[in-house]
Design brief:
This protein is mostly loops and 70 residues long. The protein contains one helix and two strands; from the N terminus they run ββα.
């Protein structure tokens, strides 16, 4: 990659985001073919696990009976 196109390394430290090595901004015109990309640090998001589906092993007939009972 050229110096102005190298990806930056993001690291979250508490609420502060450390961008790693900073480079001088490059002034260039934005064209419709090169849209600006917003990058948000992942430390601001929560990734949880879903609970197991309780009815994952049932057949279609079992499901129909269960839905009728409700």
């Amino acid at each position: 990659y050229p110096a102005y196109r190298r990806p930056r390394l993001l690291r979250c430290v508490g609420e502060r985001v450390d961008m790693g090595l900073e480079m001088a901004p490059v002034e260039e015109e934005r064209s419709p073919e090169q849209p600006e990309l917003q990058i948000y640090p992942l430390c601001r998001y929560y990734f949880g696990a879903r609970d197991a589906r309780p009815c994952a092993g049932e057949t279609a007939a079992d499901r129909a009976l269960r839905l009728k009972a409700k």
